[in-house]
Amino acid sequence: MAFIDHESPSSDLLYAQHTSEYAYRIPTPPRILVPPPELTANFFPETAPRPLQEYGLAKNTRLFQSPTHFNTPRGLGWTYGRRRQAQAILPFLYLGPMVAAKDGESLKKEGISMLLSIRHKHSLESRLMSGAMRVADELGIQRTTLDIANNQELISAFPIATRMINEHRAHIDKLHQSYQGDAPVMGKVMVSCESGNERSAAVVAAYLMEVHDDVDYIKAMQICQAQRFCVNFDEAMKHLLQNYWDILQAKRMVTEGGHAEITYEASVSSHPTSDADSCNRLKRPLELDDNDDDDDEQHRGESDEARFEGRSFAPFTDA
User: Fold this and answer.
1) Domain limits of the chain?
2) Cα separation, 226 vs 89, whole angstroms
């Protein structure tokens, strides 16, 4: 005759009740909620970005000075017909559908100097795409196309698009400085896809994250939606932007760590010490590391219990 050991982990399950219903769906990541940007009394978003003073290929800080204005959120007076137009997300960066890139009069009026089209790799070039390319050639506007097979490839295209935008702006700035001195001239880029609401919107959001030090993936989507109300970031795209934000954060930490290491090496080389002092300094941290290992063993059990504190949900309760 078999006896049940009530102190064993398996027997504990006999006296436990689950606190919620079982779900048999495929596991999915939690939803990412993007709240609408808060507005001030003057209807300006509190999410105004602070540009980096220096970025990658273009080290001219004139290119990344804070805009003199930040457009009033278009969502306040949004109409359905405006989805066919391009909106200025930043004074030099526009977002819109392919039909807007085909409007030559609008391109000349806004001073667009480059068209960046995000196109599906395996689809034939649409008439709208052909028309936009033809209009760009007629107006002498630089045009570039990024072919994407699926949304997952966007994460590798984000830095490419950012580099293209910055190189173009640096080129326009240098070109006008050569014969206009310090006259402020901005190269303006329009990013577009078929609808102007999905892949191109993600590229613009990624640009905001990469060239601004205080714009995360939530804030980037808020800025895009405040200016172009019809943008559509589905859950897959939100998680893609979140992953890209994590990558940017890791790169910045590595860069900052490299600068700190160079500064430390420079300070050590400028203040040489004797061999005896170096040995004593090396021995002291090693002894501290040994003591830290002993402390870790003592507090490992306490930390294991502490990680469950503050959790309001328990999957099972005692019967």
Assistant:
1) 61-255
2) 8
pLDDT band of residue 133 (cuts 50, 70, 90) is: confident
Q: Report the alpha-carbon distance of residue 20 to residue 125 in Å, rounded.
A: 51
Is residue 218 over pLDDT 90? yes
Structure tokens of 23? 């779900």
Q: At what angle do helices 199-211 and 154-180 cross, to 10 degrees?
A: 60
Q: Which amino acid does the sequence have at 202?
A: A
Mean pLDDT, residues 221-236: 93
Taking only the tens place, the pLDDT of each residue in 244-274 is 999 999 999 998 877 666 665 666 566 555 5
Give the strand pairing for 188-193 and 93-97. Answer: parallel
Phi (first) and psi of residue 56, to 5 degrees:
40, -115
| CA-wise closest residue to 96 among 71, 70, 132 | 132
Rounded to whole angstroms, what are the CA distances from 31 to 24, 40, 286, 309? 18, 28, 46, 24
Per CATH, which fold does 61-255 belong to? Answer: Protein-Tyrosine Phosphatase; Chain A (3.90.190)
SS (H, E, C) the chain: CCCCCCCCHHHHHHHEEECCCCCCCCCCCCCCCCCCCCECCCCCECCCCCECCCECCECCHHHHCCCCCCCCCHHHHCCHHHHHCCEEEECCEEEEEHHHHCCHHHHHHHCEEEEEEEEECCCCCCHHHHHHHHHHHHHCCEEEEEEECCHHHHHHHHHHHHHHHHHHHHHHHHHHHHHHCCCCCCCEEEEEECCCCCHHHHHHHHHHHHHECCCCHHHHHHHHHHHCCCCCCCHHHHHHHHHHHHHHHHHHHHHHHHHHHHHHHHHHHHCCCCHHHHHHHHHHHHHHHHHHHHHHHHHHHHHHHHCCCCCCCCCEEEC
Burial of 84 (0-12, 13-18, 19+ CB in 10 A): middle
